[in-house]
Sequence to fold (355 residues):
Amino acid sequence: MRTTKISQKLKLFPEDQPWLEDEEETQADVYTQIAKIPHGMARQEAEMLNKMDRSELSRMTAYCTASAYRMDALIKYLQSKKKTNGTAPKRFDECLYTPYAFTYPLAPPQQSTESTHASSVQVLPEMFLFDYGVCVFWGMTVREEQRILKLLEPFEEEKLESDDVETEEFHYYYNEAYQPRIYNDIITLRHPSNYLIKLTIAHAIAQSVKMTLFERLIDDTINETKYIPQVMAESGNIPMSRTAITKKIGQLFIMRINVNLVSNILDTPEIFWSEPTLEPLYTAIRGYLEISQRVTLLNQRVEVISDLLEMLKDHLNSSHGEHLEWIVIWLIAMEILVAVVTTSLDAFSLYYNKE
Fold:
């Protein structure tokens, strides 16, 4: 699990245009505690964000609900919702983007009485669907998100159980006066109209929530196997059958394939080859989410468990070999016994015939 869920961490997003701020603020863009942020605009906003009521901010939520989505069918479905929900689906390699509103067209905006930090510009809620089974929503309520998740179920492959669904929840708002940043899971953006910026952030967060799923699966495997070395040390017996160990090794192997190959968690999305100006932002949010460190740690934990299970399998193979050796020894002993009995009977018969 990423540490930024429980720690106050500030990450400034890179910008194409030069940003005028205090010199000491521009020299470093990552701080792990608010007290360590230099005095200036970054610290002032960090203190302001700490006082914000998250319930008043817009939500940005990611859900990992399945192994994959059927993207071609999803595009056709969303295209059919253009008039009723304002959809305009666009495909970006492994990602499908579209605005989506349950009330469309939107009602005229009311006069805002909120602080100057809030944006009065009305935009449609947006969603990003990734082919590895993750969806990211911008600007929707919890009820709207749950309604869309229901609508997505026919397009899911290997749907996860409700208890296995992983989520990442952030909040965001717009403020043209500050450099874009993320602090304590609150995202500051300048303009609501640039969906490519949201796409870039959604890519990293989708990878993070998919990684969370594998982290939990590894934790479950560790909890299921951590008692084995202790039992072996105390009794010398293996509490698992050969079949159970082989299944565990197979599950871990599939998990590593998913982490390293199928889920694109280690790869930079292809869109950043065609849009290289977005890659620094992707790298920044990926760093905030600690994806590279988490992948390294995850693979190390998988290797440790794999070593344990391989050792158990080797031990079972050795025990099986010893069992076969004892069978051979008993067969030889039986053959010798039969030979002795046969020889004895022949000798007795020969001696009886002579008399």
The chain has eleven helices and twelve strands. The longest strand covers residues 166-174. The longest helix spans residues 291-354.
